[in-house]
Design brief:
Length: about 110
């Protein structure tokens, strides 16, 4: 049997199993909670203050772009939403909603 070699940055969390799965689901749900209220005809605007600038928007792609995300699963979701915005130009919130629906089924 070959020994496992894992190369990680110093201080990287290497948790596995059910607790990590729950952490991933919670991180994806947190992103969804932020953007889902912008959907639909009664979608609300979000005010985002980053220390220097204030942005008011109900565009999911703009909101996602302004968030500072550290969790790997949440970053993956943000990358998917950004790719949707770049390729199609719209519906980043719908992508987030679909991914959350799929992840929640796990």
């Amino acid at each position: 049997m070959q020994p496992r070699i894992i190369l990680l940055k110093e201080g990287t969390d290497s948790s596995q199993g059910k607790p990590q799965l729950i952490s991933n689901i919670n991180a994806v749900n947190a992103i969804a909670e932020i953007v889902k209220t912008t959907l639909g005809p009664r979608g609300m605007d979000k005010l985002i203050h980053d220390g220097r600038n204030v942005t008011i928007s109900n565009d999911g792609a703009t909101i996602i772009r302004l968030l500072d995300i550290v969790h790997p699963a949440a970053k993956t979701l943000v990358d998917i939403a950004r790719a949707q915005d770049v390729e199609v130009g719209d519906d980043a919130c719908v992508v987030v909603a679909v991914v959350v629906a799929v992840v929640s089924c796990v």
